[in-house]
Amino acid sequence: MAKKADKTRARLPRGFVDRHASDIRAVEEMNARIREVYERYGFDPIETPIFEYTDALGKFLPDQDRPNEGVFSLQDDDEQWLSLRYDLTAPLARHVAENFNDIQLPYRTYRAGYVFRNEKPGPGRFRQFMQFDADTVGAPGVAADAEMCMMMADVMEALGIARGDYVIRVNNRKVLDGVMEAIGVSEDGQKLTVLRAIDKLDKFGPEGVKLLLGPGRWDGGKEGEGDFTKGAGLDDANAQIVLDYIDGKAGGLENPTFQSGASELAQIESLCRAAGYDESRISIDPSVVRGLEYYTGPVFEAELTAEIPNEKGDIVRFGSVGGGGRYDGLVSRFRGQPVPATGFSIGVSRLMTALKNLGKLGQDPVLPPVLVTVMDGDTEAMAKYQQFTQKLRAAGIRAEMYQGNWKKFGNQLKYADRRGSPVAIIQGADERANGEIQIKDLLEGKRLSAEIESNEEWREARVAQLTVSEDELVDAVRKMLAAQAEAS
């Protein structure tokens, strides 16, 4: 036996979580509904490995010996760096490029899987989480982007989210780049700061964004209060151009980049309206900013606008539960030739939490198993108990045979209670000799037991228990489960 000091301490890695039955089932239920919509739109599944060569992930390669900035990395036996995938898009781009001559373009595909971020974890921010993506590769027109927006609206409704409780918001990186050109911002770091400022509109409002576009902002609102976020350093006139753009007043910008992006947005809007998706479902919104640098055209976000209780019961707005856009340069990186692409990614865990809190998932929970108890440990009796268990399973009823210390029968009923088992199957020597089984309604028994004051009354009442022949096992259990369902 290991000494106490030699025991390994059980601990969960920071930024990771264990998933339990209710969440796993909720995700499977949700993903099945999403998959049905994707399939209806003509998308097919594909699966890529969780590891890729690090250089395939592109911009996440840092200038240092160990490439671990943003990604988890290791070297294989031939000293090449491998990394856990950061998202599902870069692996798709590698797959398309590697199999380009065998793929029918446009290539329409979907996939769900875990992605990994080597970043500082925080509340609601994990290092491993699931995404569910759909992408079209090889379609250069904005009709493919418009279709993505329509599909995401259909996904929201397939998940039971009512119209008015969600919106797909659409913008265009070319429009954003045109605004940057108009204010003379060309340095990548300053561009990123401007984009981050725009992205904070919902949080800080126009005045807060203006500070972030200019000198910077103190978290407390006044100088010296809280942490300081350095601004983009724009003067008041250029900061006002950005604010006018966010407010939809930048239509007068004449540079070609801005006009190209504005034209694409007009086309997307026209296609969506013609297909019956009004502004309450798909909306052109200049404040949409997607973080990843590889977006080259239209960008979009799915936002929940309903007020939803969180895990603590507080009413909150969940906001964005997915997003995507056009990334015409990602496959081209491997091919050296233009390969247009557009896609959408759903944040599975975040959306699942919102749906559960709305009562849209997990409303048909999986029943705990019927428990076949063990009264005798001899071979003949155990064979009977196993036979009963398999008979129930073959009839489609969840069932398990007790596997603990069978000599303490009270422990078996305690186990059934902790498991939430609805029914217990009991056969002692006398019942076995008569070819009979006792079936105990544990849910009704629990309810009635509160009304019985003594052990003597309990023994006389034979609470919620009946005796049937072995041949009647399945029918009797089915009737008892149906009665429980009706009562609940």
From TrEMBL:
Cross-referenced NCBIfam families: hisS
Reactions mediated catalytically: tRNA(His) + L-histidine + ATP = L-histidyl-tRNA(His) + AMP + diphosphate + H(+)
Cellular compartment(s): Cytoplasm
The EC number(s) this enzyme carries: 6.1.1.21
Annotated Aminoacyl-transfer RNA synthetases class-II family profile domain residues: 28-369
Molecular function GO terms recorded: histidine-tRNA ligase activity
Known partners and oligomeric status: Homodimer.
Top EC category: ligase
Transmembrane annotation, as ranges: none
Species in which this protein is naturally found: Nitratireductor aquimarinus
Pfam families linked to this entry: HGTP_anticodon (PF03129), tRNA-synt_His (PF13393)
Protein name, entry field: Histidine--tRNA ligase
Similarity comment text for this entry: Belongs to the class-II aminoacyl-tRNA synthetase family.
Main localization (coarse): cytoplasm
